[in-house]
């Protein structure tokens, strides 16, 4: 095992922060995440680095992270942001809806989403992408913003692609073990 820190060998995305299109930003973020997780088998380390990379490089976030299916509910996983609700029933809130329907939820105004669970009062808009493996929901990726309508179809497509890239790098049986 090589214990050098690979993060130091990966170019950061900082120079890209100003003035690039959303599409170009997501292309760079996707590549960055691939470099962070490739060759690393530890699911917890990988989910933690992905949450951190997204939080650093998607504009106007106040929370980014994962909920993992544990038994019949979603339980808080690796994230960046303020401490959050720990357990969410499938079918409840934006996360539970994405998990139940296995369809991404783009919520431009959280106050208009029936049953939205307010973990951080600053959150105004939200996007949740379900993580489905072998037909089963194993978790969700959740991003919150203090800006109204911070997410659109482009964010949805890009984050779904990032989730698909991530799937083979996570031991989902271990990550969802109760
Ligand atoms: N707002 C989410 C709860 C999770 S927090 O945003 C981190 C929901 O309604 O499911």
Describe this structure in words.
The chain has a single domain, classed as GAF domain (Beta-Lactamase). The protein contains 5 helices and 6 strands. The chain has helices spanning 22-37, 43-57, 93-101, 153-166, 172-175; strands spanning 61-70, 73-81, 87-89, 105-107, 125-133, 136-145. The protein has a 6-stranded antiparallel sheet, sandwiched between helices. Strand 5 (125-133) and strand 6 form a beta hairpin. Helix 1 packs antiparallel against helix 2 and helix 1 (22-37) runs parallel beside helix 4. The longest helix is centred in the first third of the chain and has 16 residues, at 22-37. It is globular, with a radius of gyration of 16 Å. The mean pLDDT is 94. It binds methionine sulfoxide.
Could you name the key traits of this structure?
globular; 6 strands; binds methionine sulfoxide; 25% strand; Beta-Lactamase; 178 residues; alpha+beta
Q: Label the overall shape.
A: globular
Compounds present? methionine sulfoxide
SSE string, helix = H, strand = E? HHEEEHEEEHH
What structural class do you assign from the helix and strand content? Answer: alpha+beta
* Mean of residue pLDDT values: 94
Question: What is the CATH architecture descriptor?
Answer: 2-Layer Sandwich
Strand order of the largest sheet: 3-2-1-6-5-4
Helix count from the secondary structure assignment = 5
End-to-end gap: 29 Å
Helix coverage percent of residues? 25-40%
Low-confidence runs of at least 5 consecutive residues: none
- Look at the structure and give the CATH class: Alpha Beta
CATH topology: Beta-Lactamase
The number of distinct structural domains comes to: 1
CATH homologous superfamily heading: GAF domain
Described by strand count, sense and barrel closure, the largest sheet is: 6 strands, antiparallel
Strand tally is 6
Strand content: 15-25%
Radius of gyration: 16 Å
């Amino acid at each position: 095992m090589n214990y050098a820190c690979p993060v130091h060998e990966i170019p950061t995305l900082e120079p890209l922060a100003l003035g690039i299109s959303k599409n170009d930003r997501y292309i760079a973020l996707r590549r960055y995440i691939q470099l962070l997780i490739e060759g690393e088998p530890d699911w917890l380390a990988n989910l933690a680095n992905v949450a951190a990379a997204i939080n650093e490089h998607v504009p106007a976030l106040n929370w980014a992270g994962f909920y993992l299916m544990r038994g019949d509910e979603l339980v808080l996983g690796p994230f960046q942001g303020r401490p959050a609700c720990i357990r969410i029933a499938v079918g409840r809130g934006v996360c539970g809806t994405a998990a139940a329907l296995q369809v991404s939820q783009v919520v431009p105004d959280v106050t208009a989403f029936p049953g939205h669970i307010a973990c951080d009062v600053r959150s105004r808009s939200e996007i949740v992408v379900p993580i489905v493996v072998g037909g089963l929901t194993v978790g969700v990726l959740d991003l919150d913003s203090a800006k109204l309508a911070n997410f659109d179809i482009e964010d949805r497509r890009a984050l779904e692609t990032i989730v698909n890239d991530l799937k083979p790098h996570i031991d989902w049986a271990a990550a969802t073990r109760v």
